[in-house]
Protein 1
Amino acid sequence: MIYYVLLGFIYFNRPRNIIEFIIDELKILETKRNIKKVFNENDIQSVYDFINLENKQSINREECILGLSQFVLNNKQREYLENINIGINTNLKEFTSHALDINT
């Protein structure tokens, strides 16, 4: 649902920098609705599936960091991601846990 709202904002506002615009709009939505978690488990699984195109049982550390970086909206979350202990291989359950921790 949130993606449709953001796509509508992008379509009508036509920002020059879409990524910054999306981050700003998510921050506004988060404060307006007092929502702490912007992304849900379906969003997390979609990112994991996109990173894991070969349908392996797990993804490597670099792929995990790349995927988790998609959920970083502010400096506090970025610092958390930089300091998190990520193993050599990460399965969907671990990836989901890390992503949910980032957004709390």
Note: The chain has a mean pLDDT of 83.
Protein 2
Amino acid sequence: MQTHSGLAQYNIIGFVTIVDVERAKEFYRDKLGLRLLSEEPPFALVFDANGIMLRLGMGKELPPARGTVLGWEVPDVAATVRDLEQVGIHFERYEQLKPDALGIWTTPTGAKVAWFKDPDGNILSISSHPERQG
């Protein structure tokens, strides 16, 4: 029988399309604090996202966002929301989810999630997952 090793042992690389390179660079580097590894025009900005490569592909247009494209797991969503708001990041409110005053949704499993957008409208999130701790 043939063994299948799959991809579980390899690092994932994140890909997000951007249009406004300078605004994206400022947002991901200066507001989110990611380290810019390289600029590869006309292809991508490459960032280090805590050991994971994030490639922001340079595009001419971007379809409207339909869902979250990147998320960060954080220990305290409320503290992170307040921290990011201090650098001008606006958090989305999805009223149908009945978020709290900071816009944080608590899932049926107890996870907490908050969403925000990058300058090109890509939907990003921060979340904590108590079921994974322990």
Note: The CA atoms of residues 11 and 115 lie 24 Å apart.
